[in-house]
């Protein structure tokens, strides 16, 4: 498959994502998010990409988690989204900042009640004595919020402002099609076709 790159990486990403929603069985929004710790050791985990626009790619998490500690310490991240059934992937590298609190509030309000409760109940990434302890904490939070669950102050979004976006499509005989969009600092993109 040959990529028709155009000049707008977000338009191309949206087109590919819409096609992935139709083709992927589970989680077409799952990305492998990479960060590094204070010692330069990389770590990666799967998270869900919830929003994107020319302002950035947005994920949501606990601000006290390991991933948040690493993102806040370096201000940098990368992710790769892979749509196996379409034999495509997109790789993004960029700077990271916390999303606007109003944006985080709006997304939190759209989540199911169980997920909202979980955001309060889980001390994400920290040691847990037992599942019973977690279940007890869930009950405490359910009692605290019998109706509307407000967003915890320790939970919200991160926006990745892309400096580089690469599109990859599988090619016959491993002769893949690749385009890299690099931010040029003038609100535009330098576009290069890459060898497989």
UniProtKB/TrEMBL annotation:
It holds the Pfam family PNPOx_N. Gene3D superfamilies: Electron Transport, Fmn-binding Protein, Chain A (2.30.110.10). Substrate binds at residues 50, 107, 111, 115, 174-176. FMN binds at residues 45-50, 60-61, 66-67, 89, 124-125, 168, 178. PROSITE patterns: PYRIDOX_OXIDASE. Residues 17-141 form the Pyridoxamine 5'-phosphate oxidase N-terminal domain. One of its GO terms (biological process) is pyridoxine biosynthetic process. Residues 155-196 form the Pyridoxine 5'-phosphate oxidase dimerisation C-terminal domain. Pathway: Cofactor metabolism; pyridoxal 5'-phosphate salvage; pyridoxal 5'-phosphate from pyridoxine 5'-phosphate: step 1/1; Cofactor metabolism; pyridoxal 5'-phosphate salvage; pyridoxal 5'-phosphate from pyridoxamine 5'-phosphate: step 1/1. Its cofactor is FMN. Binds 1 FMN per subunit. Keywords: Flavoprotein, FMN, Oxidoreductase, Pyridoxine biosynthesis. It catalyses: pyridoxine 5'-phosphate + O2 = pyridoxal 5'-phosphate + H2O2; pyridoxamine 5'-phosphate + O2 + H2O = pyridoxal 5'-phosphate + H2O2 + NH4(+). InterPro entries: Pyridox_Oxase (IPR000659), Pyridox_Oxase_CS (IPR019740), Pyridox_Oxase_N (IPR011576), Pyridoxamine_oxidase_dimer_C (IPR019576), Split_barrel_FMN-bd (IPR012349). GO terms for molecular function: FMN binding; pyridoxamine phosphate oxidase activity. Its EC number is 1.4.3.5. HAMAP family: PdxH. Homodimer. Catalyzes the oxidation of either pyridoxine 5'-phosphate (PNP) or pyridoxamine 5'-phosphate (PMP) into pyridoxal 5'-phosphate (PLP). This is Pyridoxine/pyridoxamine 5'-phosphate oxidase. It comes from Puniceispirillum marinum (strain IMCC1322). The gene is pdxH.
């Amino acid at each position: 498959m040959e990529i028709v790159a155009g000049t707008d990486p977000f338009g191309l990403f949206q087109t590919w994502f819409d096609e992935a929603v139709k083709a992927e069985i589970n989680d077409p929004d799952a990305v492998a998010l990479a960060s590094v710790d204070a010692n330069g050791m990389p770590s990666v985990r799967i998270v869900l990409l919830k929003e994107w626009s020319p302002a950035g790619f947005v994920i949501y998490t606990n601000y006290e988690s390991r991933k948040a500690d690493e993102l806040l310490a370096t201000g940098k991240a990368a992710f790769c989204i892979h749509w196996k059934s379409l034999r495509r992937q997109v790789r993004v590298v960029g700077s990271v900042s916390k999303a606007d609190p109003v944006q985080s509030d709006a997304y939190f309000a759209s989540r199911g009640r169980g997920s909202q409760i979980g955001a309060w109940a889980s001390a994400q990434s920290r040691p847990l004595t037992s599942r019973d302890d977690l279940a007890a904490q869930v009950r405490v939070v359910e009692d605290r919020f019998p109706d509307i669950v407000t967003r915890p102050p320790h939970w919200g979004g991160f926006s990745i402002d892309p400096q580089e976006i690469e599109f990859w499509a599988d090619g016959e005989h491993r002769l893949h099609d690749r385009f890299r969009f690099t931010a040029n600092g003038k609100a535009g993109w330098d576009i290069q076709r890459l060898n497989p």
